[in-house]
Fold each of these.
Amino acid sequence: MKTCSLFIKTLLLYFLVFSLYGCRKSENKPDYPAGSQENINSWILDSMKVYYYWNTSLPANPSLAVDPVTFFKGIKNGSDRFSALVNPDFPESYPPSLVHILGFDWITLQTGSGKVQTVVSLVVPDSRAAGKGLVRGDMIKTINGTIPTADNIAVLTSNSIAQQSADLEIEGKTGVVRISRLTNSEDPVYTYKVFQSAGKNYAYLFLNSFEDAALAQIKKAFTYFKEQHAQELILDMRYNPGGSVPVAAALATMIASNTTTGALFVEYRGNSKAGSRKSSFGTEIQRLQGALRTDFIELSGYRLGLNRVFILTGTHTASAAELLINSLRPYITVIQSGQQTLGKDMASFVIKDYRNPQIVPKWEIYPMIFKLFNAAGKGDYSNGLMPDQLADELSSLPLKPFGDPADPLVQSCLERSTVTTTSRLKVESVAEKPRVIYDSRVPVDLKSSLTITRPY
């Protein structure tokens, strides 16, 4: 999650001084050779002592004579699922994902009868996979000539990523479809539309990340929604791993009509060195730079006059996506429909060796630094945000296209319009749903904390 501020620059300055003066050779601190495991691990530990949210739980004298990836895992707090140590020379420190290599994801399911099926869950628009006719909901018969099973799907996925291609046989389609490496950048806005139901105009937006590139497309979508006189908004973030806080603040400004430029969007709470800081909608929006530069007044012009918003979530909804949900709640009625979210309620930024010359090149730390809270002081959702109404996309197979009114998550929103109670509404199918035994998108969840840039 991106966080850029004077507050964070102060932390960086603190660490620079700490690095230059606090870490000089002394009787108690050996001068390890540059490039050695001890030197790298010592730098990691010193960095974590300054920034890490759980810095008081760091071991006092851990063994430095191990490889850095193992060392980092050993010093992390047991509650920390997302901090990461990355080096491009060590692929195991940053595992690739199927969607980023081939442009699609799949899940392997087991039905109540024991039948195992592998299903395409997502296809990146305009990718080679989409160009070959691969669509969400396709049932895969074979992968590289092998029938996928519970025992081999992980290996088949790893092999497809390694060779940067996959030969697929799809049920209902003839021949073999060869999918090669993704060449286009992923547009965070997959689709948007307006449809009618029960006499109302529903705007639907599928947003797959809060990367900077999303903002221009979000503006186009809201312009279209206004032209079509949309009365309700369904924001689909079921697979959204997060991204930029300023982009999330911009979208929140477009959704909630009663916010102001000075209203609180997020409060960052760090360790005793970091302290806490409150940030308004206007402050976050001002961090949008270059072609993204805008202001609160412009963004408020896209508003639809909503008094509520439906937000679709799943187990992959994380980071800035969860922040948006939590930060909107004090200002507008949010009806969260789907599944419990991932529970990444923290922000981070990259830490590198900023000394000149560098002593520890290439290694980058992405520590969890700040807990996130909204204007009502509510946060600490590390177990995920619970939906107001439960719905599961797997309750109706094959999987429906994003935005299809027959999709169980969309359908739950349409049904909610006729329900007056404020209690949680269970709308899942009574029929037994298949069990997910493998999901290629899990690596994206683990990397959701890495969609950040160095503070400027």
Amino acid sequence: MPGFRTVGPNQAIIRSGGGDQPKIVVGGRTFVMPFLQRAQILSLEVMTLTVNTARVYTKAGVALSVDGVAQVKVARGEEAIRTAAQQFLGKTPQLIADIALQTLEGHQRAMLGTMTVEDIYQDRDAFATQVREVASTDMANMGMEIVSFTIRDIQDEHGYLEALGVRRTSEVKRDASIGQAEADRDATIRSAQAQQASEAAKYTADTAVAESERDFSTQKAEYDQEVNARKAEAELAYQLQEAKTRQDIRGEELQVEVIERQKQIQIQEQEIMRRERELDATVRRPAEAERDRLELVAEGNRRQTRVDAEAERYRLETIAEGERARILAEAQADAEAIRLRGEAEAYAIKAKGLAEAETMSRKADAWKEYGQAALVEQLFNTLPEVAHAVAQPLAKTEKIVVISTGGGDDAGAGASKVTRDVTNTIAQLPALVEALTGIDIISTIQNLPGMISTHGADDQQNGAADDVDSE
């Protein structure tokens, strides 16, 4: 591009076409003649390269992976810039960085093959310096220089470095323990010697210091006495003047305070008047109006309450009067009903008593007429009830267990024995009646007209049989 060209301090202009050698301008400007000259820019900035060599065998045959970091740039000299221009003009910064990186990686690999793992691991700076020195020649031939080169990381895949570190750590710990013990011993000896010398020097110094302090204290006491006297006089004069000045200031302050308080009193009086008016407008008058309203409302409520109470009293009195009349009527009706019911029950009782008396009279007449026959009839009528009473315990029994011994007498066993006991109980009734009343039921029945006993019937049958035989 023709005309003036200007670059910064990190760039160089290579102007060609004006002579045998290109003109180089660093961080400045130059004029480029149209059609006759050409200007190109070369960067002088530092490039950071990561030099990574993986699995490179050292002198002892141990494979190491070494990572280094290099800072490279085009050298500042005019000849170096001209050389770099011949090598790199027209190339991109990335391509220039790749060329420098490959150069450094090659020299780093070559240097790893000439050293042992211990030398590389223990002195990384020496290894980096050797790589830098070896590669500097080739870099200078390309117009570049190595600003710095450091080893960032060293690794191996078989744990050689770790084992070396463990051994070295043990040796260092051992040497450190021995060194610490020797250092402690020497320190103790030297500390004792130093303590002894220090004590002696201290005593000498303390003596000199005490003498100096004595002289100083004496001179200082004399000086302080004179100074204190002058100072006391000055302080008394100052205090006197200060008291007079303070008194004048206090008088002025009192005058100011009196005026301020008068103003405050006036302001407070005005504020009181304003608050009084405000109180009348916002509190008293609304309160009086509210009080009047509440008194009117209370009076209305009181009158309404009185009217409601009178109405309620009249209503309750009316209801009570009606209820009293109702209860009185119901009581009179209940009393009349009770009276009529009592009369009816008395009449029924009287009629029942007369009927029972009539019945008993007729029964008495009948018994007089029939005599013992009536008693026998009455006895026969009660026999079923006696039998029912005798069998009642058996009816309430849920289960009867009968144990038969298999005896051959006529007493029987089992269920027949139970029924026979009931029959025997009923058969004892005539004897019981005779013992209680003196009436022989069996003889009475036998003496009834038309009654034939079992013995008489047998005699009649036997007589009839005899008559038949005689005929």
